[in-house]
């Protein structure tokens, strides 16, 4: 196995695009981050492994370069091949995220090579939409977010990050990013009685797959079906707009969200683990 590292996202996509597109659900996060990096350049790290015949066996991204790495599922020998050059190129890598077995192997190899602890931080589950069951009878309706919603969405995004422990990479202007995503039509809200009561975000389709995320309902509005209705109707809209695959991630520590999405028709695809390197977890 041979590892390749670059800071050029176009070179990365030229080498790995076919490999990533072959499994658009499992590779969606990496694809969407790579495409985003083309539009919003910032220092990032891109890597892949090829076998003896030159075929891509796995890939890794660190985008931005201060964030944890994300890895695709890959064989054990490919994981080992990635770690050695990354120890030299990115010795302060803060962590890794990916399919459970691959992430665990990477974390173990990294801990051994760098002589630092690797702390398991969070378990997630990747879901793909099967047969959709759209909720009915929930008051309100789905609409795209507009400029007047931005302040509310920024506040909700902060509350979402606090509740979920979501990473906040330094150097990113989150209000500006959310405003830009609203202009692009990527944020949606469920509105009831003339006011937004829940939100969700959807990525542009990458190899036919679109990912829903940042699903949030304020605590005082929960238990009324708003989040399920928001995600269900958004899933239908994405399919109608030409995204055959819809997917999302949930925290395994949140049984409520896992139950809601399964009722909508989302089916488990893979378990995902996140590790942090060095210091306390």
Structural shape: globular
Main beta sheet: 12 strands, mixed
Number of helices, where a helix is a run of at least 4 consecutive DSSP H or I residues: 8
| Biggest sheet: strand arrangement | 1-2-3-4-5-12-6-11-10-9-8-7
State the low-pLDDT regions, or none. Answer: none
Instruction: Name the average pLDDT.
Output: 92
Relative strand content: 25-35%
Q: Evaluate the radius of gyration.
A: 19 Å
Order of H and E elements: EHHEEEHEHEEHHEEEHEHE
Distance between the termini: 32 Å
Query: Percent range for helical residues?
Result: 25-40%
Give an overview in words.
- The protein has 281 residues and is α+β, with helices and mostly antiparallel strands.
- The protein is 37% helix and 30% strand.
- It is built from 8 helices and 12 strands.
- It has a 12-stranded mixed β-sheet, with helices on both faces.
- Helix 3 (76-89) crosses helix 4 and helix 5 crosses helix 6 (174-183).
- It is globular.
- The two termini are 32 Å apart.
- The relative contact order is 0.17.
Primary descriptors:
alpha+beta, twelve-stranded mixed beta sheet
How do the helices and strands line up, and which of them pair or pack?
Layout: E1 2-6, H1 9-21, H2 28-39, E2 45-50, E3 56-62, E4 69-71, H3 76-89, E5 95-99, H4 100-114, E6 118-129, E7 141-144, H5 150-164, H6 174-183, E8 187-192, E9 195-202, E10 209-216, H7 226-240, E11 245-251, H8 255-264, E12 266-277
Parallel strand pairs: 4-5, 10-11
Antiparallel strand pairs: 1-2, 2-3, 3-4, 5-12, 6-11, 6-12, 7-8, 8-9, 9-10
């Amino acid at each position: 196995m041979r590892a390749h590292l670059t800071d050029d996202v176009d070179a990365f996509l030229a080498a790995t695009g076919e490999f990533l597109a072959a499994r658009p659900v499992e590779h969606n996060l990496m694809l969407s981050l790579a495409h985003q990096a083309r539009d919003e350049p910032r220092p990032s790290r891109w890597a892949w492994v090829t076998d003896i015949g030159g075929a891509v066996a796995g890939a890794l991204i660190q985008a931005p370069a201060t964030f944890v790495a994300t890895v695709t599922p890959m064989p054990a020998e490919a994981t080992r091949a990635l770690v050695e050059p990354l120890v030299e190129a990115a010795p302060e890598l803060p962590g890794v995220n990916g399919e459970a077995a691959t992430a665990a192997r990477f974390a173990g190899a990294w801990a051994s090579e760098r002589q630092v602890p690797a702390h398991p931080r969070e378990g997630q589950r990747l879901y793909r939409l099967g047969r959709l069951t759209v909720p009915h009878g929930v008051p309100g309706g789905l609409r795209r977010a507009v400029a007047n919603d931005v302040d509310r969405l920024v506040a909700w995004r902060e509350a979402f990050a606090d509740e979920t422990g979501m990473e906040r990479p330094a150097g990113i202007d989150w209000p500006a990013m959310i405003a830009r995503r609203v202009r692009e039509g990527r944020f949606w809200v469920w509105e009831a009685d003339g006011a937004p009561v829940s939100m969700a975000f959807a990525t542009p389709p990458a190899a036919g797959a679109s990912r829903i995320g940042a699903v949030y309902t304020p605590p005082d509005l929960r238990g009324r079906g708003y989040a399920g209705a928001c995600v269900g109707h958004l899933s239908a809209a994405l399919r109608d707009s030409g995204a055959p695959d819809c997917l999302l991630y949930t925290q395994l520590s949140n049984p409520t969200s896992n139950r809601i999405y399964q009722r909508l028709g989302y089916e488990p695809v893979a378990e995902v683990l996140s590790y942090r390197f060095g210091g306390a977890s």
